[in-house]
Automatic annotation (TrEMBL):
InterPro entries: Aminotrans_V_dom (IPR000192), Kynureninase (IPR010111), PyrdxlP-dep_Trfase (IPR015424), PyrdxlP-dep_Trfase_major (IPR015421), PyrdxlP-dep_Trfase_small (IPR015422). It comes from the Eukaryota. GO terms for biological process: anthranilate metabolic process; L-tryptophan catabolic process to kynurenine; NAD+ biosynthetic process. Gene3D superfamilies: Aspartate Aminotransferase, domain 1, Type I PLP-dependent aspartate aminotransferase-like (Major domain). One of its GO terms (molecular function) is kynureninase activity. The keyword Cell membrane does not apply. Residues 19-105 form the Aminotransferase class V domain. Keywords: Hydrolase, Pyridine nucleotide biosynthesis, Pyridoxal phosphate. The keyword Hydrolase applies. It comes from Monosporascus ibericus. One of its GO terms (cellular component) is cytoplasm. The lineage of its organism: Eukaryota, Fungi, Dikarya, Ascomycota, Pezizomycotina. This is Aminotransferase class V domain-containing protein.
């Protein structure tokens, strides 16, 4: 396995050119490329269509992990010629912890013969984590020893899903539709995150010197999230101070907090409120560290 890492610890971002360079170097002995659409730690949005085309042009099967991208940025997986993708639905899709996951399989990778009465399964069908719920409905209850999948992503289902999971996800997707869809939400998201970024930049120097954003400044290279890298040793106290002020954000050790205003329910006032809580939290943590 080949990992792709930032060129410098000071700059955790990875450019599309850096990724392409690694792909080109190892293309002759690489079968599969797996990358996140949005990197969980930095919030960097990768150029999915460009990287996909580059890798596929060298015979590499491309899968994207879209856990932090789905419901956050518009995705056109078929148009981008992605081979496959997977994601959860409890983050930006708001369906709740432990909820049902999602999967995309390009139609060229899911062709299934219509002759489901074959004595033997077609070669290749068994090369997957297969379950009876992914079997063709016409023979699902015949309990045969062969596996004949449903065409498409449905053929990768394992068992019947929880009705509560489906209901919560369905309700969330209805809200997305009523809100104008991903394009409209993305435009608001870019404005919210840019506003938050601006508010952070206007903090007094005493507080601003205690952190920096490691998320790309270009709105087209990020989603809703800003990852704020704190000075060493401040994370735990800052999180405690924020909680006392009624602010809940995410932490990634050793020194990062992730702040992601969600366009469905966060406001510009929320961004101001966060900064007004973040400043004293930083200063309190710094004083505690110095004492």
């Amino acid at each position: 396995m080949v990992t792709i890492e930032p060129a410098s610890s000071e700059d955790p971002l990875i450019s599309a050119e850096d990724i392409q360079s690694v792909i080109a170097k190892h293309a002759s002995d690489t079968a599969l490329l797996l990358l996140p659409g949005i990197q969980y730690y930095t919030g960097q949005l990768f150029d999915i269509p460009t990287i996909t085309a580059f890798a596929r042009g060298r015979g590499i099967f491309v899968i994207w992990d879209l856990a932090h991208a789905v419901g956050n940025v518009p995705l056109s997986l078929h148009d981008w010629d992605v081979d496959a993708a997977a994601w959860c639905t409890y983050k930006y899709l708001n369906s709740g912890p432990g909820c049902i996951g999602g999967m995309f399989i390009n139609s060229r990778n899911s062709l299934v013969t219509t002759l489901i009465s074959d004595e033997e399964p077609e070669p290749g069908y068994g090369k997957r984590l297969s379950g009876w719920w992914g079997n063709d409905k016409g023979t699902r209850f015949q309990m045969e020893t062969k596996f004949h999948p449903v065409q498409g992503a449905a053929g990768f289902q394992l068992s019947n899903p929880s009705i509560l999971d489906i209901t919560s996800l369905g309700a969330s997707l209805e809200v997305f539709e009523l809100s104008g869809g991903m394009s409209a939400l993305r435009e608001k998201s870019k404005k919210l995150t840019a506003f938050l970024e601006s508010c952070l930049s206007k903090m007094p120097e005493a507080a601003r010197s205690l952190f920096r954003s490691i998320t790309p400044k270009d709105p087209e290279q990020r989603g809703a999230q800003l990852s704020l890298l704190l000075a060493d040793g401040l994370l735990q106290r800052v999180m405690e101070e924020l909680t006392e002020r009624g602010v809940i954000v995410d932490e990634r050790k050793p020194n990062v907090i992730r702040v992601a205003p969600a366009p469905l329910y966060n406001t510009f006032e929320d961004c101001v409120a966060f900064v007004e809580a973040f400043e004293p939290a930083l200063l309190a943590a710094s004083r505690a560290q110095s004492s």
